[in-house]
Amino acid sequence: MRTFLVRALLMALAFVLPLAMAVPAVAASKAELDASSKRTLGNLVAKVPAAQALNEKAVAVLVFPSITKAGLMIGGQFGEGVLWQKGKPVAYYNTAGASYGLQAGAQKYGYAMFFMNQKALDSLNSTQGFEVGVGPSVVVVDQGMGKSMTSNTITEDIYAFIFQQQGLMAGIGIQGNKITKINK
Length: 184
Known about the structure:
- 34% of the residues lie in helices and 46% in strands.
- By secondary structure, it is of the alpha+beta class.
């Protein structure tokens, strides 16, 4: 049994390590990231009324136009994004995460976080990286919640949307995700 687990772990590493090592090679330039992020936010706001309501009240919006996630027992995810304030790009971030458990697959998706107050935005830069699930409350908005959301029902610190999901990633396990400011 132990030999099987060691082999499975080595196979998972052989699958995931090339993906992790390839990430810097596909990193977008500042101009490409700005354009992609702006286009992605525009599409989200145009298609989802809740996103439009949040965008009007948010002090800032962090948009990751494309995050890649893959794994086989051991997994990882990575993407780069832009922080928008008053329609202008003001900072750049990456999101990286690792997971372990019964999982397999690969997936791409986009992610947007609407910071509804200055305290929530300050928490993004107050540490050596913003850990999702630690600190201000983050509410992931699904279609059902989005239909009932108005400017009067916005009461949380941060609202997040996951969109444009492609591929299949299935499983259960332990995972962590960190958002870190980068220089572009």
